[in-house]
Amino acid sequence: MKVTVEVDCTPTEARTFLGLPDVAALNAHMVKEMKRRMDANMTMAAPDELMKSWMAFGGQASEQFMKLMTAATSPPKASKSGG
User: Fold this and answer.
1) Nearest 5 degrees, angle CA 37-CA 39-CA 45?
2) pTM strictly above 0.70
């Protein structure tokens, strides 16, 4: 036997019926905070700001970055296993 029930209600009505909490205010707060943090950190993604922060270390950061990129693009070295 197969029974199909169709319920026509809003998400708020369904949440209330099931006894679930209303998290709309919490969600709005979280979205607002995420936007604030993204806006605050947006300047760090700017290429000129990245170069300024790298050059602040006297070129050491750029050398380390180049070593990292070289290591990332190099094929893995075969490890020697003792028998």
Assistant:
1) 105
2) no
Q: How many domains does the chain have?
A: 1
State whether residue 18 is helix, strand or coil.
helix
> Rounded CA gap, 49 and 27, in Å?
32
Q: Is 43 helix (H, G, I), strand (E, B) or coil?
A: helix
- Asked whether the predicted pLDDT for residue 83 surpasses 60, the reply is no
Place of tokens 């709005």: 28
Question: Residue 20 is part of which domain span?
Answer: 11-71
**Cα distance between residue 53 and residue 62, in whole Å:** 10
What are 30's two structure tokens?
A: 């979280």
